[in-house]
Amino acid sequence: MDDNTLSLFAGIGALLLLASLIGRLLKWRAGPGPHAVIDNLNARINAWWVMVLVIGIAFIFGKYGVIVLFYCVSFYALREFMTLTPTRRSDYPALAAAFYLALPVQYLLIASDWYGLFSIFIPVYLFLLLPILASLGGDTTRFLERASKVQWGLMIAVYCVSAVPALMTLEIPGYEGRNLLLIAWLIMVVQLSDVLQYVCGKLFGKRKVAPNLSPSKTLEGLLGGVALATLIGALLCWITPFNFWQAALMALTVNAMGFFGGLVMSAIKRDRGVKDWGHMIEGHGGMLDRIDSVCFAAPVFFHFVRYWWA
Amino acid sequence: MFADLTAFAITSAARLITGARALWLGCTPQPVQRLYYANHSSHGDFVLLWASLPAELRKHARPVAGADYWCKPGIREFLIRKVFNGVLIDRQRGEPGDNPLQPVLDALGQGDSLIFFPEGTRNLGEEQLLPFKSGLFHLAAANPQIELVPVWIANLNRVMPKGRALPLPLLCTLSFGEPLHAAADESKPAFLERAREALLNLAPKDA
Question: Which of 3.40.1130.10, 3.90.226.10, 3.40.50.720, 1.10.260.40 is the CATH number of B2-200?
Answer without folding.
Answer: 3.40.1130.10
